[in-house]
Write a structure and sequence with these properties.
heterodimer; A: 141 residues; alpha+beta; VC0802-like; 2 domains; seven-stranded antiparallel β-sheet; 36% strand; B: 432 residues; alpha/beta; Rossmann fold; GMP Synthetase, Chain A, domain 3; nine-stranded mixed β-sheet; four-stranded antiparallel β-sheet
Chain lengths: 141, 432
Amino acid sequence: MIRQLSVFVQNEIGSLAGVTSVLKDNGINLRAIASFDTPEFAILRLVVDQPEKAKELLFASGFAVKVSDAVAVELEDKPGELDGMLHAIAEAKLGINYIYSIVLRNGKAPLMIVNTDDLLKTTVILKENGYIVAEQEDLLS
Amino acid sequence: MIWNETKECMSRDEIHNLQSVRLKKMVDRVYHSVEFYRKKMQQMGIEPGDINSIDDLRKLPFTTKNDLRDNYPFGLFAVPQSEVVRIHASSGTTGKATVVGYTRKDIDLWQECVARVLAMAGVGKNDKIQVAYGYGLFTGGLGLHYGAENLGATVIPMSSGNTQKLITMMQDFGATAIACTPSYLLHIAETLEEAGAIGNIKLKAAICGAEPWTENMRKEIEARLHIKAFDIYGLSEILGPGVAADCEFHNGLHVYEDHFVPEVINPETLEPCKEGEVGELVFTTITKEALPLFRYRTKDLTSITYDKCECGRTLARISRFKGRSDDMLIIRGVNVFPSQVETALLEIAETSPHYMLIVDRINNLDILEVQVEVEERFFSDEIKDLEKLTQKIARVLQSALGLSVKVKLVEPKTIQRSEGKAKRVIDKRVLV
């Protein structure tokens, strides 16, 4: 499992840049970013190399931030890979809350980041189906 | 037309005499029937015998909305319950309503005042008037309704909320007058314009009130609907709509001084203002039976003149309101205090007490947006949880304020903190 940051941001011009500038100024490297928006606000999800440090920095800058777990699955770059993974999760009767991806990994396989109501069970199911589940250490530069 | 020429065109001496006689009688009655006032007068060392003319008015104690709240619900009533034929109520600062009562004679005097207002707006028994204020505890609907019936007009009791039906009936019934809030009337005008139906209506007059509006808004209403628009003022504590209204010269609102004695005071020093000087409007009722009030502080800012009006009426006139001496907002006719929002938010564990009220007028309807900061401790990273929270806040506020509210979650610490009195309201409604 990996650690992800969720940041509350208003749906306003420059609000995402406000978050990334805090990370840039402190040498935090972004691995993945995804924004889940509503008309009024958005939750920005980030995977970074130093999640705890990033959380402290963002909190100090006045953001509402939460660190939580997610499952990161290695997928080969070929058709049907994601489909297979999603079917494995669905057959285990697990609902997916959201999903986003890390495509560029310096020659390593792309990662799909998944959140479900039962992360442990999701990890077990995916491993049983032959998928490689990445850990936080795998995300260090 | 002048509905009651005897009362509306008295000489200033006659007004002075009538007010003096009525005040003296009223003070005597209240002293013997309302413990609250008796105690206040005793503390101040005054007796009914000290009040001999209207010039002695300043010896009497002030009354505030808090006094009504402290004596909730019926503590200030001056008659036994068997004499009370009607109750109205409006929202108060802490969730407790401000309750007012009327005897049969009070209802008579109310419908007399409203009939004067309508006659002044050119409405008569040959007119059909749509009353589009809310009917119920709010005084707007029933107040206008009884006044219009008293006048002999045909009343169409629309109440508020169904613009389409209102417009259909306005055309089908040939309504010639309407009573509603000015912002709602502009909304009606817009809807009629969109339907290309302006030419189908027979409307000639509108009696608007229950919220602050401006001379420009009046002119806009008149131009768009090809009608005459009039300003009506009132507050439930004193009567409801019909305490004062303007005539065709729109040169201030005529106060029905034979029932309500106005004063304008400096809200800080409580000393009287000079004629024409802006201060807080204060009313003493001199004929009301169920809820007579001494020197009730309305918190509305205005100025007063006693010059005779071009229309022939000799009643004192108060100018268009310049604002409030407290932080009360009037949104779609509903009184809202920022402190009510604060109290309601404190009941919800997941929010911080930092909030901002944004009042705006969009498509001529007043909208209240409440911005609430997301608390770090309770921040959920699930959108569905945040949406549930938004809905919960909206529900709690709606039941506390009696008004639908748009809730917007904002980032922590983005609402301005200020030392001393926090700025809690941004009123974007342009009232110039």
